Amino acid sequence: MSFCSSLRPSLCSSPNHILAKTLQRTFSSTHSLLNWLAPKRGHNQKNRKGRPRVRTGGSTKGTTVVWGDYGIRMRDHDRRISAKQLQIGADAIKKRLRGQRYRLYTRVCANIGVYTSGNEVRMGKGKGSFDYWAARVAVSRILFELKGDLHEQVVRDAFRLAGNKLPGLYEFVRKGDPPVMGITKVEAGTTLEEMQRPRLKLPMDITAGRLPATTPP
C-alpha cells in the first residue's frame, strides 16, 4: 500500500497535492504556468510583423550562456522563427541525447502571432486570420542551453542537428565565452567603451579625397 493511499482521501486530493504534480516540468526560462511555444493571452490583438529589437546602446543581453555549460547562438542575421520550428529543434536535441542525464534551457519564447490570408485573395479586407505563433530572434541571440555530464562532442552533434532543422546559421558557444554586441565579439582588445564611442569626424578634404573620380586630379 502506498503512502498516499494510507492517508485520508481528503489529504491525497488536496489542491496543494494536485498543484505539486502539475508543476513538475523540465526547466525553462518561461514561467512555470506558461507555455514557451504559445502565450497565455491568446491572439486577441493582432501583432504587427515587426523586426527583432536591435540593441544599439551597447547591450549584450542574451548573447552569453547563463544557466548551462553550452549553448547554440544565431550568427547570420535576425529572423522570425515559428513555434513549430523551435519545437522541432528542441526535439532534435532530446532525440540525440536520449538516455543521458542533462537539462535543456530555452532562452526564447514564441509570443508573436502571425496572420496570413488565403491563396488567391484580393488585397485589402483586413490583416487576415491567425496562422501560427513565432519568435523574433535577434542576431547573436542564444536559443538553447545544455547542462549535464555530457561530452562536448556529443553536445556539438546535438546542436548541429538542431541547427540543421532551424532556419539560419548558428554557432556553438561555451560558458564563459565573450559576449557579442551586434556581430562583434567583445573580447581581448575590444571594450564596450570603444564600441560605444562615436565615430571620428574627418575633415572635408580627407573625405572628399576618398570619393571615386572618373578623371585623375
How is this structure best described in words?
It is a single chain. This protein is α+β, with helices and mostly antiparallel strands. It contains seven helices and nine strands. The chain has helices at residues 3-6, 9-12, 15-22, 83-96, 152-165, 192-196, 204-209, and strands at residues 70-74, 79-82, 102-106, 112-116, 129-137, 142-148, 170-174, 180-181, 184-185. The protein has a four-stranded antiparallel sheet, with helices on one face. A hairpin with a 2-residue loop joins strand 8 (180-181) and strand 9 (184-185). The chain is flat and about 65 Å long.
Short description:
This protein has 217 residues and is an alpha+beta fold.
The percentage helix is 25-40%
| Low-confidence runs | 1-15, 17-25
Say how many strands there are.
Answer: 9
- Biggest sheet strand line-up: 3-6-1-7
The helix count comes to 7
Q: Describe the global form.
A: flat
